[in-house]
Amino acid sequence: MKILGREWTRAALEQRIGALSQLGGITRFEYSEGKSRGVVALRVRTAAGLEFSVLPDRGLDIFEASYEGRSLCWHSPAGLSHPAYYDPRGTEWLKTFSGGLLTTCGLTTAGSPSSDQSEELGLHGAASCIPAEHVEWSEKWQGDELTLSISGKLRESSVFGPNLVNHRQIQTTLDGSSIDISDRIVNEGHASSPVMVVYHCNFGFPLLNEHSRIYSRANRIEARNEHAQRYLDTWSQLEPPDANMEERCYYHRMGALPENNARVVLVSDEASHNLAVELSFNAENLPWLVEWKSILPRHYVLGLEPANCKVDGRRKQRESGMLRFLEPGQSVEHHLRIQVLVGRDEIGPALERCNTAERVEEIGRSEPRRSPKTGHRWSPENRP
User: Parallel, antiparallel, or unpaired: how do β-strands 70-71 and 61-67 relate?
Assistant: First the structure.
């Protein structure tokens, strides 16, 4: 493995440390105050400077996340709360929406509240507030590589209703700067069940700022509503905080590379190209990327959200003919990688993987090319 620019064997490392925790590992702790009291967390640290916390009590979602001490994600004003505070009605979900690097929306509904086949469905479903079962974590050597792994399962079920079980595994390595999330959702019920999942990844300051730029491997990009449509030319840009600008939402219809990975890259500062995050995911089962952008004060956040649905609610998803189902005994797998990138040598190839060669050239330019009409930076093959 590579640490501090040098390759190390397990034996060489163990000669130089008293315990693995000197370099990284997994530590269990529990929050003790306020609405978060009693929430268990597993803190993961790597020798590369990546640190994140996984919440078994909140669907094995990821709350805190940083790289070399710099936060990667947005924390909402609602703060972290125990799942006992979850209220499924209407938009009450927002009162327990903590933000963080990953909030899972699903499993039988996601998106706006709706009424579907006589069932009242609240915002974004229950997945992020379901405590996981059979939670395990390990620090395991395989030759000279050390894998840090957390796994468990969560069940969304009711009497005479759906019975979906999500088997989740989260992994990184001791020298890693990426997080791999793998889900296998199984229908253990007696009848066909809708399955809707949105991986609500929430990026924030200082990673996110008015100099940030989004690069997408989308085949097309469409605005969710008229307000977003007015700003379609600036879907890839961020602005300074503005109390008068309401949130905007865009749907990216993802195209897959040969290995069937859809990709989107968030570059923190287009001029300095010093830090970026790349999301890659399996486009066959997650054909959409939902872009949620808010520049409101205290709500300065970019959601990049791989999804198997749009976020207008289950009723509209059913009416559009796009609602996905699992039959009894069937399963579906979702894979997502969140990769931290540092410097031109890592960011450049990531943009090439997005098939945005012209945008690679724009990185670091003092005067990037702009559309004469809008001032928006663009390349002809990727303009929405």
Answer: antiparallel
